[in-house]
Each structure stands twice: as structure tokens, then as C-alpha cells.
Specification:
The protein is α/β, with parallel strands linked by helices. It folds into two domains: about 100 residues, no CATH class; about 230 residues, Aldolase class I (TIM Barrel, Alpha-Beta Barrel), CATH 3.20.20. The protein is about 25% helix and about 15% strand. It contains 14 helices and 14 strands. The longest helix has 13 residues.
């Protein structure tokens, strides 16, 4: 393990601090997403306007200086429990000293994205879909961020980069799905985001467009009528899906639920990707409550991610066997629509691997012996017929080329 030195800087000159406590801000400003993003909390003294930081938290701010920026909206900061340092919002948003302790196996690019970058702003790892990085800023700099090498800097994708990315998608006919990410695409103006979506909708082979965003969680006022109207597909247009990122029930506020409802009511399906975080949501009660709350809000739990091996995050990762036991505590015990798929994103670019506990004890041509979610062992008789070919495929897919299943941009 390498412990990065905490560099002592000369104290910054005092600056005038904008009031960020909700009671001190006019409602017209508080519910203005541009005000929220323009007044993000970025240092210890900003947060100290809300409550007294612990010595450990102040040491975390000192350790983070120069490693990975800090930033969160006043709205999200207002969700922090001032009385409890174990608050899941504080643990996700405020830096920890442990971020400076880098293990040998931790990676700057844990998902191998930089080696699957055939054009500016494009990551092409899977055969039929690409990641389109359209912005380098976020509405919160999550302490578990797996793209910290790219976000929070001062080098956003240029117009030329985005045009090159669009050109790659247009010429690569096996790309059926485009995921807009970054950074957070909802930080773009509605006009600029609408331009990118309009260009993608004009590409015949792009069948679906996804947007990965955390703004419904940290700045739900961004979900306004103008944005929803732009995203809503007209008859025959390529649909847009939004994937957001709630990690704890505490984040499912009335404002966040209303923002998600506005998207769903506008014809934009919303899914959720949760990261399993040690000490934040790594309990059965926490996960069940979150997934039930999401489904009630008409947000479909999609993935439950095992933490990535990104530098400075070992303290937040959950042991894989614990993750699988937590998954077992969801499957069967609650509505299956509320149970996300537990996956591990293989280090180095290997892709997502399901971490599904095996309920099958043995299998042969006559029977399958399995265990139910309650631990009861039962048998299932195998069918006598074994040929599973589909004769009508020859008719249904006559003249249709088979899928091009090469990896990414190869």
C-alpha cells in the first residue's frame, strides 16, 4: 500500500461565502438548478456553515487536496445528518483520509476505458453499444467515483471532439445503443443536450439512447418542463432512457421523487444503478428500503454494482462474498421488479460479470436439484426432449445479417 503525502498548502485568503443553508436562501434561488450548480460546496469551510465537522472529516479535506476535487450542491448538502458522522450522505460526499492510501492493485482506469477509445469522447467496449462522454463536470464528486481521472478538471470535450464522436457512431453501423455520460450530461444546457440527442436520433442504426445522470439525486430541480419536452420522443423517434444513481433511501426526497415522476410522466423511462458501498448501504435493511422506495417512485432498480478498484476507494468496497449474501437477502424476499442485478465490472475492461449466487446444487439429464430462497432443497424434473432449435428463425430472419459480436471497436 502506498500512502500519498498530505501536502500542506498556505492557507487560502478568506473569501466571501454565499449563504447555502436552505432557510437563508430565497425559494426562487433554491429551486433554480443553475443557482444550485453555481454555489456548490467545495471545501471544509463551506460545509462548516451547516454543521461542525469532525476532526476526521477535516483531515479528509486536507488529504483530498490535490487528489480529487470536492463538490456538492447545497440541496444535497442539506440532506446530511449534522448529528451523525456515519450519515450516508456525508460518507458519499465528504472526502476521507483513506483516499490517500493507494493499494497496489488499485487502478487509475479500473474499467479499461482508455484502451477502448477509437475516437474522441467514445468508449467502445461492447459489440453493439458505445459510451459517449459529453461533459467532464458533475453535480457531485462522489467519493467512490470510478472516472475521477477524467471528471472535475478543466478540459471538457471540445465541439470538435463531440463532432468526431458523432461521426464515429454514424459510420459504425453495429452501434445500436448510445449511453451519454461524462461527467453528468444533465449539466449541459437543454439546447446543447438537445442538439446531441437530435443528431443521434438522425442516425438510422441507433435504436436507443441512454443518459447516465446523478442530477435527479443531487439537483432534482434540473428536471424541468423544458428538459422533459426535449427528451420526450415524438412518434417514431428514437427513445431516450434515463439511468440515475440513488445509493440510499435518504436520497429519495419528495423533490427527487417528483423529478423522477416528471420524467416518467413525460414518457422517459427511468432506471437506477446503485453502487454497493461499505458502511453506507451494505445492509439488508438499507438495500431493501432503497429498492422498494425506488419502485414505488416508478424508478426501476437496474444494477447493484460491486465497487470498482479505482484508486483511493478500497475503504468503500464491500467483500464480494458479503455482496452475494446481501443479494440473496433480496432475491425472493421482495418483489422481483425491485431486485437489481448484482454485477462486478471486471478490472481492465473485461466487462460486467453477474455475481449471482448459485441456487442449483446438481444437474443431470433427468433432474435438477436446487435450493429455494428459504434454503429448502427441491427437485425439478428435466424435459425428455432436448432439441431447442427454433425452426422459424430461418423465416423470421431471412436475409438478415447475424449480429457482429466482435469486441468493441475491433
Amino acid at each position: 500500500m502506498i500512502q500519498l503525502p498530505v501536502i500542506a498548502h498556505a492557507p487560502a485568503p478568506p473569501r466571501e461565502r454565499t449563504p447555502i443553508r436552505r432557510g437563508d436562501v430565497p425559494e426562487t434561488k433554491w429551486f433554480d438548478w443553475r443557482w444550485q450548480l453555481a454555489n456548490m460546496l467545495t471545501d471544509a469551510e463551506d460545509v462548516a456553515q451547516l454543521f461542525a465537522l469532525t476532526e476526521r472529516e477535516r483531515a479528509g479535506f486536507a488529504a483530498a487536496d490535490g487528489l480529487f476535487r470536492v463538490g456538492l450542491t447545497p440541496y444535497y448538502a442539506a440532506l446530511m445528518d449534522p448529528a451523525h458522522p456515519s450519515c450516508p450522505i456525508r460518507l458519499q460526499a465528504l472526502p476521507a483520509v483513506a483516499e490517500a492510501m493507494i493499494r497496489d492493485e488499485e487502478l487509475r482506469d479500473p474499467l479499461g476505458e482508455d484502451s477502448h477509445n477509437p475516437a474522441p469522447s467514445i468508449i467502445h467496449k461492447y459489440p453493439d453499444r458505445v459510451l459517449f462522454l459529453v461533459v467532464d463536470r458533475c453535480g457531485i464528486y462522489c467519493r467512490h467515483c470510478n472516472r475521477r481521472r477524467l471528471v472535475g478538471g478543466d478540459d471538457p470535450p471540445s465541439t470538435a471532439d463531440l463532432e468526431a464522436g458523432l461521426a464515429y457512431i454514424a459510420k459504425t453501423t453495429r452501434v445500436r445503443d448510445v449511453l451519454l455520460s461524462g461527467g453528468d450530461p444533465f449539466l449541459l444546457s437543454t439546447r446543447r443536450l438537445g442538439y446531441l440527442i437530435e443528431r443521434l436520433r438522425a442516425i438510422p442504426h441507433v435504436e436507443t439512447i441512454r443518459i447516465g445522470t446523478r442530477l435527479p439525486v443531487v439537483c432534482p430541480m434540473r428536471i424541468d418542463d423544458e428538459l422533459v419536452a426535449m427528451l420526450r420522443p415524438k412518434a417514431g423517434e428514437t427513445p431516450v432512457f434515463v439511468n440515475t444513481h440513488f445509493n440510499h433511501l435518504r436520497e429519495l426526497t419528495p423533490e427527487a421523487v417528483a423529478g423522477c415522476a416528471k420524467l416518467v410522466d413525460g414518457g422517459i423511462p427511468v432506471g437506477n444503478q446503485t453502487v454497493l458501498l461499505r458502511g453506507i448501504n451494505s445492509s439488508t435493511r438499507s438495500l431493501r428500503a432503497l429498492m422498494r422506495g425506488l419502485l414505488k417512485a416508478r424508478v426501476r432498480p437496474y444494477y447493484l454494482f460491486q465497487g470498482d478498484t479505482v484508486i483511493g476507494t478500497d475503504h468503500l468496497r464491500t467483500p464480494v462474498e458479503t455482496a452475494m449474501e446481501l443479494y440473496r437477502s433480496l432475491r425472493g424476499w421482495m418483489n422481483s421488479m425491485a431486485v437489481p442485478m448484482l454485477v462486478l465490472d471486471a478490472p481492465g475492461g473485461g466487462g460486467k460479470v453477474p455475481l449471482i449466487p448459485s441456487y442449483v446444487k446438481s444437474i443431470d439429464p433427468q433432474r435438477v436439484v436446487f435450493e429455494t430462497y428459504r434454503g429448502v432443497t427441491l427437485e425439478y424434473p428435466q424435459p425428455r426432449e432436448r432439441d431447442c432449435s427454433v425452426a422459424y428463425d430461418a423465416v423470421q430472419f431471412a436475409g438478415v445479417e447475424p449480429d457482429d459480436d466482435r469486441e468493441g471497436s475491433t
